Amino acid sequence: MNPFINDRTDEYGGSIENRSRFLLEAIDASITEIGAEKVAVRLTPYGGLHELPQYDEIEETYAYLAAELGKRGIIYIHLMDQKSRGSFALPDGFLKRFRTNFNGIIILAGGMDKELSEKYIREGLIDLAAFGEAFIANPDLTDRLKYGYELALPNRDLHYGGAEHGYTDYPVYAGKS
């Protein structure tokens, strides 16, 4: 969807509608096969990993996608904020603007903590907060959040290493609160 990467000149390139076409056609095909209630999508607005450049139409692109996906009645949209990965953050107000175009379930991942997730849920900006990396380092994350226990930090050097070490061997909380 990024025009710096998608430089096609056919019906899948150029305008926002054309650059969004492949995603929406894949969503439509999935809905046809299994029903909208079983279809979701993960989007990374403002994603810039691997030096992916920003572009002027980001807001328009995701407003269009939110509206189109809302029309299709998919079960949820999972948004990723890549700030925690060293990339661009979702700008202030983005979630509110996105929510005006999509009234279905929104899940947000990326650098979430208890306070921020509760704030976004309370404000109606998201419905669920995702804690992917935090769960890796904290197998008892729900208890740690519930009781205010300190969170362990994951060792990112072990991610995608192909073994259990760094994924399944973090201990549960043993300290005192």
Automatic annotation (TrEMBL):
* Source species, domain of life: Bacteria
Q: List, in alphabetical order, the Gene Ontology terms for molecular function in this entry.
A: FMN binding; oxidoreductase activity
Q: Where is the NADH:flavin oxidoreductase/NADH oxidase N-terminal domain?
A: 2-150
The protein's matches in Pfam families, at most eight in alphabetical order, are given as: Oxidored_FMN (PF00724)
Spell out the InterPro entries in the cross-references.
Answer: Aldolase_TIM, OxRdtase_FMN_N, Oye-like
Q: What is this protein called?
A: NADH:flavin oxidoreductase/NADH oxidase family protein
- Species in which this protein is naturally found: Pedobacter cryoconitis
